[in-house]
TrEMBL record:
Family under the similarity heading: Belongs to the UPF0587 family.
Pfam short name (any one): CXXC_Zn-b_euk
InterPro entries recorded: CXXC_Zn-binding_euk
SUPFAM superfamilies: MAL13P1.257-like (SSF141678)
Organism whose genome encodes this protein: Solanum verrucosum
Annotated protein name in UniProt: Uncharacterized protein
Keywords of the record: Metal-binding, Zinc
GO molecular function, one term: zinc ion binding
Superkingdom of this protein's organism: Eukaryota
Length: 141
């Protein structure tokens, strides 16, 4: 069993506006806001209405998904996105993720784009796995 799952990658893919096109947002890449002062992680113009939307990733407010969360069927807030003019439709589990077994073994470089991770924890003498990652978006004000 896995104790927690976190991302060690600094880039995430989110789907905004059109479910056929993924838009990647990287924590380490920022662009100036088109209005006012400050920076954001994504500025994109709508092809249909020409309105400008932004997505800013807010760090420090998420937490790992734990084994207890998984057993209870609960989600964990991994990241907070400040979306203005966008509606997030989906989250793509790309990049490298990290997991910790119940015995404390760290597994790094996990690719969840294939929907499943299976490994053996030699210290804990047990198989570990995570499968079918899914995302939900909750509006926070």
């Amino acid at each position: 069993m896995i104790t927690s799952v976190t991302t060690s990658s600094l880039s995430v893919a989110i789907v905004v506006r059109s479910p056929k096109k993924e838009t990647y947002v990287r924590l380490v890449e920022t662009v100036p806001l088109p209005f006012g002062m400050g920076h954001t992680h994504l500025v994109q113009k709508c092809k249909f209405c020409s309105s400008v939307g932004t997505v800013t990733m807010i760090t420090g407010l998420g937490r790992p998904l734990t084994h207890a969360d998984s057993e209870a069927g609960k989600c964990a807030p991994l990241m907070l996105f400040d979306c203005r003019g966008f509606e997030q439709l989906d989250y793509v589990f790309r990049g490298e993720w990290e997991a910790e077994s119940l015995k404390g073994t760290i597994f790094e470089g996990i690719d969840l784009s294939g929907d499943e991770f299976v490994e053996y924890d030699e210290r804990g003498e047990a198989p570990v796995m995570t499968s079918r990652p899914s995302a939900t978006f909750n509006i926070v004000k």
